[in-house]
Amino acid sequence: MGDLYVWLAGYWLLTRELLLLAAAGVAVSSLDDLLFDILYFARQVWRRLTVYRVRRRADAGSLPARPAADAPIAVFVPAWDEAEVIGPMLATFTRTMRHPHYRVFVGIYPNDAATHAAVAALGDPRVETMTVPHPGPTTKADCLNAVWRGMARYERAHGVRFKAIVLHDAEDVAHARELDVIDYLIPAKAMVQLPVVPFADPASRWIAGHYLDEFAESHTKDMVVREAIGAAVPAAGVACGFEREMMGRIADALGGAPFDPESLTEDYELGHRIHARGGKAAFVRIPGTRGAAHVTTREHFPAALEAAVRQKSRWLLGIALHGWDRIGWQGGVAARYMLLRDRKALLNALVVIVAYVAAIAYAAAIVLKGTVPDARALPAVVERGTALDGLLRLTAALLVWRLAMRMLFTGRQHGPVEALRALPRAFVANFVNFLAALRACRRYVRSLVSKTRPVWEKTAHRFPQTAVDE
Q1: DSSP 8-state secondary structure symbol assigned to residue 238
Q2: d(CA 167, CA 235)
Q3: Which among 126, 244, 322, 381 has the fewest CB atoms less than 10 Å away?
Q4: Residue 349's closest CA among 303, 326, 390, 317?
Q5: What is the pLDDT of residues 284-302, one digit of tens each?
Q6: Where are the chain's structural domains?
Q7: Alpha-carbon distance 169 to 216, whole Å?
Q8: d(CA 365, CA 380)
């Protein structure tokens, strides 16, 4: 046996170590996900056996009508370079929204004349333009703070006090009964989050499509479990409503505005601030009418790889890295567990790529053992009955379960065809998340070194023509 045997033995050892590292990481993460699955399905069974036996499932159309003298709702729409979508979005919102008492406040920068013109062209008295006092872009939180101050000026000038604040983006298609649901639940709840459902994009089945799978699982199962175990419910930044009084208390604590302008994920942090102050939050999946689709907000997500990586790196940077610095590990056991779960996304993206490399290396070792004489003298990389063999079998079973859950929730939201696409899209999602994790880490290190303030790194938005034509 010569040098080739030595090299192969080293390759065998390296492959075995990679498999052990990847399998351990994937197993821990998958067992965490399995716990969420068990909690979700246990809750579903319990509610069917108890709550829904004595109480009919509610729908938005059956909610009691609000008193005519009740306070109105303020809708915040931060906008930077949104001239192409803000007009159709606002026109659709004001035309379709059934709730009669609301006012939309749009935050626009002074150096964004095109967006100013698009909003002014609507000529709708229910839409107010709030100009940010300095050129953009800054952060979305900074823009929202300008809108908050503008709303406060409006309240003083008109002698009105809004009941709730609702957040939307300039490309959102909101459900006609959204404000009815939020109005009904506030002030009993300090925060109400409705589901976000991405549009299927025929031109981007894989990049834009993987958002379908992630949101179908997150906004059907994960958010429900968070609320059920008493942890903070993070706001998604759109389709979320907040009690005006709670927002006012947070604003007072932060120096006059409720959003931290240094934050890249102001919505996520706001959910934690509300929870820390004892505010109750609800994630609500409710049909518009009995047997109809749920009350959700729909929007297009990035269709190109670069745009998807840029968006998801901002989420990871704000939640997993800056969030660790800014929020720490506050709260009880459930809250800390959720913080750990949120932050594991960054590590998961790296572990999955290690798993892919280990799988390729293992496959190559099997081929070498069957074709290279020196390799035949080596034992199998994974010998039957060993701890590594058992760990890999567990990991494989958990992977099959995880893919089945992704297909299940995608199918429930988007139908059987998208459920089938969810299987190969899982690998696309892992690749996107890995690239996003690398970019987030680079940006985090760069920000520590340069000590620069974050800016609004937004993606180009699209508004569906079908919503305009309806």
Answers
A1: S
A2: 9
A3: 126
A4: 317
A5: 999 998 878 899 999 999 9
A6: 60-303+462-469
A7: 20
A8: 9
